[in-house]
Design goal:
The complex is a heterotrimer. By secondary structure, chain A is an alpha/beta fold. Chain A has twelve helices and twelve strands. Chain A has an eight-stranded mixed sheet, sandwiched between helices. Chain B is built from 19 helices and six strands.
């Protein structure tokens, strides 16, 4: 359980902003710092949740791990090996073991492909699975794993003929066909109806246990994260501000941002109507092109002091065993 | 296995295709065009149309600027249509060193406006003494001409009775027409054939009344000398209306031209547009996929091609090299590919950002696979549509080059016919039958491919599909 | 006092494949000053209901039966002109799903808001601007945003502008279709707070359409649960979310499927299968194919909405039919 399968050290991804003529002449260069020094370890067999609002860099982190883009700085280790920069052969091998489930299952499948083509594509790409017949058998097998049975009912359909839940199952089946070890799931259930969401998460968990998989679960939804993940890291403006076991982090949040997030989440319980809810945060999320100096959360923090504004950015420190927080004042709050 | 799959796919496709009505219309039209190409030898009355379109001797028996025969259905007075009488009653007598041939042509005249000319054709050799008599339904018999011809070898004989009978017509008129009228008329302005097909009564010159009935034209020939002969006599009644689509100013049969042009139109249109669009689609998708510097360079090359006007280039090339349809197709392919590049590139840029392309990247798909499996199929419907639109453009371009006399002289194309019509002032003279048929065929062919293209679009684009 | 009374409304989409019964006999009422929450899965007819209340069904949809009484006046009997002058936006306004993404990118906020107000009201630009600023302040924005373009604003600000635009003409009923779905949690909570304040200040009645039961618990005085074009349950916030639990099996299952943040749930419930095809809905109760408590009667007869306790109506053969 304690073996680290994936480690990210001070990962950075900066995107250049188009410069105006004036900036060009003055030689200025601005960057959108989408991911700005992210470090975490994911242990084998766990479900690690990466949580944050839109624009916090969680999806970019996922794409960096998937090698869909190159990092600006930092290091990524997969099973102890540096995968920050890979040769084409090593990259193919890496992509066999690390798979991704996308947010929108409809958009992530070519609309011209039948399900059989969607599922056999990974095999074709990696030249695996033998002849056509054997490939098809593997595809049928994957469909059975995600409980789309009988597989023959689905193989010849197009993705637009399936319901949202079925599509996401097919997307999951596609990632399973190469027998990966590590799966990045980017908001896998946010486009699925509530009534089938739990079913899908349940299935993903079952597969995880059966096949001994590790998940990186990226979401904005704290409620499903608590239900689904073992550990959670909360991201704000390209950095992790708090990290810890799911229950612990949500029941005893330390960082003011995490507290605000939790306070904002609605709950299906009575007696909340006509009550104005306190949300302990102010202002709007700044642009990632202009990250505030000092603690990057200070302009929105209700508890910020001059220290937070002026001293360098706080690092993640261990507050309790397993529970890390990047805030100077967490003890006082 | 693979073959079976393909067959199944095609069967599926056909099953879908037949449900799209306009697609079927397009397909039927395409079938008709193909049928025209296959049946060309049966359909056209002038088998050498393709080869001898510009040879005026091939067409000399036809009337000039004659309307189609079916205009008679709409006019009050019927025009005489073209007729060829090649089965005369022949009686032959042979003596030492002489052969005497008598051929009688029977022509049933039942129109209001007389033929323009009567043309006698035959093949002969040696000294031929010819006489032509006309026997009219009213019993009058006229000697039209008498002539001796000496042919050294076997050669064709052609007599235009309109010219030969100018002497006979003078005598005929003197007998019947009012001398007062005749005095004011130069005999050279009289058209003999028109006179002979009118009632013999005063007014024959000014207000002729057609004399309908059976005319007999008798050709007598005495061939003198050893080996002298005359054979295969035939009479052409040069009409005022001609064939299904009339004739042009050079006496050519437009129907034959249009039919013989179909195969070239199909070839020019299909080959040019297919090659051009395939190149353009590949170019656009590649440019979009690679982006960055590759895109920049590719787009600049594209812009260079885009900004060179094709027509002058084609003119120069046609002037330098021997104008041929193949160089023209090659030139058009080399320049028309730019037509689809912009759109395909922008589609490609869009598809490149699609999540399923990203998903394929995440799976480790190669560039080739992403371009061929994920990007190209998406632009195929557009490719078909632009192919369909490129077909008429190619045909018109070919015509434009022909307009400058730099077309391929060995073939006939719709564009050339249209160009000749413009040149011949068909619009000003109201010779609509010279313009409409080639124009209509160009439009129909464009429509055919547009229909098929759009039908394919609805089928190949699964988002439009509901099942 | 009833502001809106909807009686047996039927809205069908006449497509080439057949008639889709998107709303099939929906009845409810909305009282003055209350928020009615409408919940259901996608495709249950929530959004269709919103368009029906403005009597502007999306083609090929048509309202084929029913009455919509606004203060006793049947708005379905009004012609297009009267509707526009008297009801639409004047009395009943709607915040469409994703409306914040429909702001024209090339015009400033001032121009867009001005255009909306001037097409409905005869007033000078000065007056219009004053009113715009009044409503912007009301939704928590400063007059500063007027000279901005939509891309310069955050999602939350755009949603506030859309809400302000809906409120311009001082309607009495505002229909909000998923107003918080595309927003981040913090902004979502802020918008919900805003709606609560507006309801209080302007004495508005809201119809709040969402798929999220948790959000609904925060805003709705009464909740209406829809399934496959029908109402299955209407109850007060307490009756639906309270300890005695909702009555209809569908509502119960939805509730059990909603993940909760503040308590550890070992196993969330889910509803097997998918909602029925509205081209050919099943006979009997429309939920019977997915219902864990199905009885023989459910397959045969359609259950009517019956009152099981004051203000609580349920359409289920297991409730109120003993």
């Amino acid at each position: 359980m304690s073996e680290v399968i994936f480690e990210v050290k001070n990962l950075q991804k900066w995107f250049p902003v188009k410069r105006s003529l004036g900036q060009l002449l003055r030689g200025q260069r601005t960057w959108v710092r989408a991911v700005d020094g992210v470090s975490f370890q994911i242990k084998k067999g766990e479900i690690f949740g990466l949580i944050g609002e839109s624009g916090c860099g969680k999806t970019t982190t996922g794409k960096l791990i998937m090698k869909l883009m190159d990092p600006t700085g930092g290091q990524m280790l997969y099973r102890g090996q540096d995968v920050t920069h890979l040769s084409p052969e090593a990259l193919q091998a890496y992509k066999r073991e690390v798979q991704m489930i996308f947010q929108d299952p409809y958009a992530s499948m070519n609309p011209r492909f039948r399900i059989r083509e969607v599922l056999t594509e990974p095999l074709v790409i990696h030249r695996l699975g033998g002849n056509e017949q054997e490939k098809l058998a593997l595809a049928a097998d994957a469909l059975t794993k995600v409980k789309l049975t009988p597989p023959s009912d689905f193989l010849d359909r197009f993705s637009h003929m399936l319901s949202g839940g079925q599509r996401q199952r097919v997307a999951t089946a596609r990632t399973l066909i190469l027998s990966p070890r590590f799966i990045v799931a980017d908001e896998p259930v946010s486009m699925v109806d509530l009534s089938t969401r739990a079913e899908l998460l349940h299935m993903m968990k079952e597969i995880q246990q059966d096949l001994d998989l590790t998940y990186l679960y990226i979401t904005h939804d704290l409620s499903t994260a608590r239900y689904f993940t073992d550990r959670i890291a909360v991201m704000y403006l390209g950095r992790i501000v708090e990290m810890g076991p799911a229950g612990e982090l949500i029941d005893h949040p330390l960082h003011p941002y995490t507290r605000a997030l939790i306070a904002a989440v609605p709950e299906p319980v009575p007696g909340r109507v006509n009550v104005i809810k306190e949300i302990p945060i102010k202002g709007e999320i700044p642009s990632a092109a202009q990250i505030p100096a000092g603690c990057r959360f200070h302009p929105r923090c209700l508890f910020a002091t001059d220290e937070c504004r002026n001293l360098p950015e706080p690092e993640l420190v261990q507050a309790e065993p397993e529970h890390l927080v990047a805030c100077r004042r967490y003890k006082e709050l | 296995m693979k073959l079976k799959d393909l067959r199944e796919t095609l069967r599926d496709f056909w099953g879908e295709f037949r449900k799209v009505r306009y697609g079927m219309v397009g397909l039927v039209m395409f079938g008709l065009f193909l049928l025209i190409v296959i049946l060309e030898p049966v359909l056209i009355p002038f088998p050498e149309t393709g080869r001898r379109w510009r040879d005026i001797t091939y067409w000399e028996d036809n009337p000039k600027n004659a309307a189609p025969v079916w205009v008679n259905w709409f006019t009050r007075k019927d025009y005489t249509p073209q007729a060829v009488l090649d089965k005369p009653e022949i009686s032959e007598r042979k003596a030492a060193n002489t052969q005497m041939v008598e051929a009688v042509f029977t022509y049933n005249y039942k129109y209001d406006l007389p033929p323009i000319d009567l043309l006698l054709r035959a093949t002969g050799k040696g000294l031929l003494n010819l006489a032509v008599h006309l026997e009219r339904p009213d019993g009058l018999s006229i000697e039209l001409t008498k002539k001796s011809i000496r042919l050294s070898g076997e050669a064709p004989v052609r007599l235009s009775l309109d010219k030969e009978a100018s002497g006979a017509v003078g005598d005929f008129l003197k007998t019947y027409e009012d001398p007062d009228v005749l005095r004011g008329v130069s005999i050279f302005t009289v058209k003999p054939v028109e006179v002979f097909f009118a009632r013999a009564e005063p007014g024959i010159l000014r207000n002729p009344v057609p004399l309908k009935g059976e005319y007999r034209i008798k050709l007598t020939c005495v061939a003198v000398g050893s080996g002298a002969f005359l054979k295969e006599p035939a009479l052409t009644v040069a009409g005022r209306v001609f064939g299904l689509m009339g004739t042009d100013a050079s006496k050519r049969d437009i129907w034959s031209g249009v039919i013989a042009g179909t195969k070239w139109a199909l070839l020019i249109g299909l080959l040019t547009s297919a090659v051009a669009v395939i190149i353009g689609v590949f170019y656009g998708v590649t440019s979009a996929y690679f982006g960055g510097a590759v895109d920049l360079v590719m787009m600049r090359i594209y812009e260079v091609f885009q900004s060179i006007p094709l027509l002058p280039v084609m003119i120069v090339v046609s002037a330098v090299f021997k104008p041929s349809i193949w160089t023209m197709i090659l030139m058009m392919c080399a320049f028309f590919w730019v037509g689809s590049v912009r759109t395909v590139r922008s589609m490609g840029l869009q598809i490149k950002e699609e999540i399923y392309v990203e998903a394929a990247h995440a799976l480790g798909a190669s560039r080739g696979r992403i371009i061929f499996k994920h990007m190209l199929p998406q632009v195929i419907p557009y490719a078909f549509a632009s192919m369909a639109l490129q077909v008429p453009v190619s045909i018109v371009y070919e015509a434009s080059v022909s307009l400058l006399g730099l077309g391929d002289a060995t073939i006939v194309t719709w564009g050339q016919i249209l160009h000749d019509a413009m040149q011949g002032g068909a619009v000003l003279q109201g010779i609509w039958w010279w313009i409409i048929p080639p124009g209509l065929f160009i439009a129909l062919m464009g429509m055919t491919f547009a229909f098929v293209g759009f039908a394919m679009d609805t089928i190949l684009n699964p988002k439009l599909r509901t099942r | 006092m009833e502001k809106l009374a909807i009686k047996n409304i039927k809205l069908h989409y006449f497509t080439s494949k057949g008639v889709i019964r998107a709303l099939d006999g929906v009845s409810f009422d909305l009282r003055a000053g209350e928020t009615l929450g409408v919940v259901g899965e996608s495709g249950c007819g929530k959004t269709t209901l919103g368009t029906a209340l403005l009597n502007m069904p999306t083609p090929p949809g048509r309202i084929v039966a029913g009455e919509i009484l606004f203060d006793g006046l049947d708005i379905l009997k009004l012609n297009e002109d009267e509707l526009r002058k008297q009801i639409r936006w004047e009395k009943i306004a709607m915040v469409f799903q994703g409306a914040m993404n429909c702001l024209t990118p090339v015009y400033t906020i001032r121009k867009q808001m001005m255009e909306t107000i001037l097409t409905h009201r005869k007033m000078t630009k000065q007056e219009a601007e004053e009113r715009i600023i009044k409503y912007l302040n009301l939704v928590g924005l400063s007059a500063d945003v007027l000279r901005r373009y939509p891309h310069e604003l955050s999602g939350g600000m755009k949603q506030r502008i859309v809400i302000a635009t809906a409120l311009f003409l001082e309607p009495q009923v505002v229909i909000c279709d998923e107003p918080t779905t595309a927003l981040d949690v913090v902004v979502q909570a802020q918008i919900i707070n805003l709606l609560k304040q507006l309801k209080e200040q302007l004495k508005l009645s809201f119809i709040f359409i969402t798929h999220d039961l948790a959000t609904e618990a925060e805003v709705a005085d009464r909740i209406m649960v829809m399934y496959a074009g029908k109402v299955v349950e209407i109850g007060t916030n307490e009756q639906i979310y309270g300890p005695q639990r909702a009555a209809h099996p569908y509502t119960q299952l939805l509730m059990a499927a909603t993940p909760r943040l503040r308590q550890k749930v070992d196993q969330l419930a889910f509803i097997p299968g998918t909602p029925p095809d509205l081209l050919a809905p099943p006979a009997g109760c429309r939920f019977h194919l997915r219902c864990p408590q199905v009885m023989e009667r459910c397959r045969q007869e359609e259950p009517p909405l019956v009152e099981v306790e004051p203000a609580h109506t349920v359409a289920c053969w297991r409730c109120g039919h003993e």
